[in-house]
Amino acid sequence: MQPNPNVIIIAAGLGSRLRPHTASRPKCMLDFGGKTLLERQLDIYHACGITDISVIRGYLGDKINFPNVHYFDNIDYRNNNILGSLFCAEEKLVGETICGYSDILFEQRIVAALLESDNDISIVVDTDWKAYYEGRVDHPETEAEKVIFSETHEVERIGKGIRDCTHSEGEFIGMLKLSRAGAKLFRMHFHNAKKRFTQKPFQSASVFEKAYITDIIQEMVDSGVAVHCTLIQRGWKEIDTVEDYEKAIAAFSG
């Protein structure tokens, strides 16, 4: 295990559900208590001793320009999705790598827990996730990236719209870690799927180009790849809608 993995932050999306706040800046550049969302993420990774950080830009990418960060630009961000964005930084998907969404606030303990995992592919799963959806109107529980996992914390099913929950369950928070071997597997399954499903339905996506990271994870699980869950209880917030943003700002103010 590398003592200092590299980090890829995916920040290419339009953030359309946060308008008008994202009319002139990407959502990772929204202010939370005097620091942008992205700055808060960078601070936590730095506090964990991680300095090799890459950001994938897209919508209003010129607004993201922090020093000592590697940048990759998704010029086709309007026509693809999170998985496609991630592979704009494929050259960084080697060795031990943490990948994360740019629209989550999270505590340092979550990164620390992920760093402790010695599995080839580990995803962060919140088992106390339902509490976040109480009173959350604009982003209902049905939109959660839900995870069903086994007694040994291996992913069985992942994605939005899972309803028949007969096993242990949680919500994927949008953060995962790959070992060198895990990164190789991840790249291999992506390229195999791309060859087979370009312009065709893929897992839950209407076409491969619109796939989420959860889609490639499910594809790997279906192929027999072990994907481990690093279980947490709260300590993070997704900022997806105006409602989410206003509640988070109120929490900072309080």
Short précis:
The protein has six helices and 13 strands. It has 254 residues and is α/β, with parallel strands linked by helices.
Short key terms for the protein model shown above:
254 residues, alpha/beta, two-stranded antiparallel sheet, 6 helices, 13 strands, 26% helix, globular
Walkthrough of the structure:
The mean pLDDT is 93. 26% of the residues lie in helices and 24% in strands. The protein is globular, with a radius of gyration of 17 Å. α4 packs across α5. It is built from six helices and 13 strands. The protein has 254 residues and is an alpha/beta fold. The strands form three sheets. Strands 1, 4, 5, 6, 8, 9, 10, 11 and 12 form a nine-stranded mixed beta sheet that branches.
Beta-strand content estimate: 15-25%
Radius of gyration: 17 Å
Shape: globular
Distance between the termini: 40 Å
Low-confidence stretches: none
Helix content: 25-40%
State mean pLDDT (0 to 100 scale): 93
Give the class from helix and strand content and strand pairing.
alpha/beta
Largest sheet: 9 strands, mixed
What is the N-to-C succession of helices and strands? EEEHEEHEEHEEEEHHEEH
Number of strands: 13
The count of helical stretches stands at 6
